Amino acid sequence: MTQPPQSFYGPPAQPYYGPPPVAPPSAGWELERVDAVGGTGFGLAQLRVVPITSGLAIGSLVAGIGAVLVSTLAICFNAVGASDGWGVWVGGAFTLLSVLAGGGALAAGMIALRQIRRSGQTGRVRFTGRGVAIAGICCGAAGAGIGLIGLLLGLVLQMS
User: Fold this and answer.
1) DSSP 13-36
2) What DSSP line would sit under 83-114, residue for residue?
3) pLDDT at position 28
């Protein structure tokens, strides 16, 4: 009696009758449902798209906080150097930087709000972070405003 030749790849595969096996979802992906494809051993997996915090909103908040910090430096340099005459120049440079960072925070926050409002349609990524974008807009406007007030303060102190 001879035995049939064995394959080098292991025992022959047994036919599988039933729903296709589902791999565990990886991080960030949630399995919504699996539909069996008729006549085959395959299935169609439909994933739930997990909402993502908008990167523009986070960038807006970071730029807004940076604008507030730089405008504080502008006020300090304007007040300290007003008597020596260099305060307005150095404070003006920091004021320019705070106004640019504040303007960038305003622009990024507005674009982020638009991105968040338009997201969430079928098959598209849903963005979150509306509050973060609004906070970035507020911090950017406050930083630019504080920087300009600090520059005016430095001009008044130098002229007196």
Assistant:
1) PPP--SSPP-PPP-TTEEEEEEEE
2) TTT-HHHHHHHHHHHHHHHHHHHHHHHHHHHH
3) 60
Q: Is 53 helix (H, G, I), strand (E, B) or coil?
A: strand
49-52 long-range contacts (CB < 8 A, ≥24 apart) are 49/123, 49/124, 49/125, 49/126, 51/125, 51/126, 51/127, 51/128, 52/125, 52/126, 52/127, 52/128
SS3 58: helix
Cα dihedral 104/109/110/112 (nearest 10)? 120
Rounded to whole angstroms, how far apart are CA atoms 106 and 109?
A: 5
Nearest to 65 by CA among 144, 150, 131: 144
Tokens coding 39 = 């006549």
* 138 CB-near residues (< 8 Å, 6+ apart): 64
Mean pLDDT by 10 residues, the chain (160 residues): 58 63 61 84 80 94 97 90 84 93 97 92 82 97 94 85
* Token code pair at residue 111: 């674009």
